């Protein structure tokens, strides 16, 4: 089978097309013919060995999020049937309950081989049936960005009438927008592009803030919601956390998901303590959370926002490079 792997050394330039033997499922396993994948910012971090030993060892099949059709079943598997559209969970073994260290040790796309391959054997317990109405490309957007957004929205206890702020128009932020709307929340989305803000409003965002025109964007949040936001989806990290803390209401939540603008920040601890702000670190979610999210998607028939350019299997390097440019809207995807 063909694979796209990082070989020889770390770095974007070392992704290449390779070949590995076709796998066969054993007892309790499923053979999946992958049809699509999506890119996350963590894929670019892995290329730089940014997670240290948790980046894995070379050669490494890249990308963590994919979807495909069940090709064959190993002995004892009854949860799936040939032809089912499925997604491997990004952390094999995390089926329910809280995140543990052993789950991080098993991440696809680093340290374990990822989904940029034609065939993949997966433990049946590490698969989720995709929403029935989605295409493989749409389903491939779900394992990381959608589950992370779902974990943040549900973990913060969002309810009708709440105010939810999302930063940027990447995959997590747009999924958070969709899930917040499902729960009846008012949504404020931020971007440095008026065109992207217009597209986000077309998806249902209640308000848009151009953070380039309004660098102190927390003031605009406070104008729109005088008591502050109930939840801020924080993907910037050090560069934006201070603004998020000013934007959130007393007793509200800042969901820390990304560190695109820096990983080390000086915090106003007084504001956090005296206003009872909760900092909620969010890393993905369990299979149970994934399946819960799929049920919500089925009910609302929501479709993911996918960037206009669809990459090919052999263009994994270019697709990963594209996510660092920040020019995309929604999820960057590859079709096999």
Write up what this structure looks like.
By secondary structure, the protein is an alpha/beta fold. 28% of the residues lie in helices and 27% in strands. It is built from eleven helices and 16 strands. It has helices at 41-47, 101-104, 136-139, 142-155, 171-182, 194-202, 217-224, 241-247, 269-274, 287-300, 316-325, and strands at 2-6, 15-19, 29-39, 60-61, 65-73, 85-88, 119-123, 127-129, 163-167, 186-191, 207-210, 229-234, 248-256, 278-281, 306-312, 331-335. The strands form three sheets. Strands 3, 5, 6, 7, 8, 15 and 16 form a seven-stranded mixed sheet that branches. Strands 11-10-9-12-13-14 form a six-stranded parallel sheet, sandwiched between helices. Helix 8 links the parallel strand 12 and strand 13 (248-256). Helix 4 (142-155) crosses helix 5 and helix 7 (217-224) packs parallel to helix 8. The longest helix has 14 residues, at 142-155. The chain starts with a strand and ends with a strand. The model has no long low-confidence stretch (mean pLDDT 94).
Describe this protein with a few key phrases.
6-stranded parallel beta sheet; 7-stranded mixed beta sheet; globular; 336 residues; 28% helix; alpha/beta
């Amino acid at each position: 089978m063909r694979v796209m792997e990082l070989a020889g050394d770390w770095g974007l330039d070392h992704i290449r097309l390779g070949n590995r033997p076709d796998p066969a499922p054993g007892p309790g396993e499923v053979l999946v013919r992958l049809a699509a994948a999506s890119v996350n910012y963590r894929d670019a971090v892995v290329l730089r060995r940014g997670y240290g030993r948790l980046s894995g060892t070379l050669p490494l099949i890249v990308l963590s999020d994919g979807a495909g059709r069940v090709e064959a079943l190993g002995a004892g598997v009854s949860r799936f049937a040939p032809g089912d559209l499925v997604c491997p969970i990004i952390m094999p073994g995390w089926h329910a309950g809280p995140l543990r260290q052993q789950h991080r040790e098993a991440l696809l796309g680093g340290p374990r081989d990822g989904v940029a391959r034609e065939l993949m054997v997966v433990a049946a317990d590490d698969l989720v049936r995709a929403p029935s109405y989605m295409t493989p490309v749409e389903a491939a957007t779900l394992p990381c960005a959608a589950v992370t957004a779902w974990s943040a929205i549900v973990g913060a206890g969002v309810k009708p009438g709440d105010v939810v702020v999302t930063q940027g128009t990447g995959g997590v932020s747009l999924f958070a927008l969709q899930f917040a709307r499902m729960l009846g929340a008012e949504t404020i989305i931020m971007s440095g592009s008026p065109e992207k803000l217009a597209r986000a409003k077309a998806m249902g965002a209640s308000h848009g803030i151009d953070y380039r025109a309004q660098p102190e964007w927390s003031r605009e949040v406070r104008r729109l919601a005088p008591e502050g936001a109930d939840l801020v989806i924080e993907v910037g990290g050090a560069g934006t956390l201070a603004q998020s803390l000013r934007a959130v209401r007393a007793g509200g939540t800042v969901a820390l998901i990304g560190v695109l603008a820096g990983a080390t920040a000086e915090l106003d601890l007084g504001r956090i303590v005296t206003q009872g702000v909760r900092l909620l670190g969010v890393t993905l979610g369990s299979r149970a959370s994934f399946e819960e999210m799929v049920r919500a998607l089925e009910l609302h028939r929501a479709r993911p926002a996918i960037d206009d350019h669809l990459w090919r299997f052999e263009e994994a390097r270019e697709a990963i490079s594209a996510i660092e440019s920040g020019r995309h809207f929604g999820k960057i995807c590859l079709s096999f």
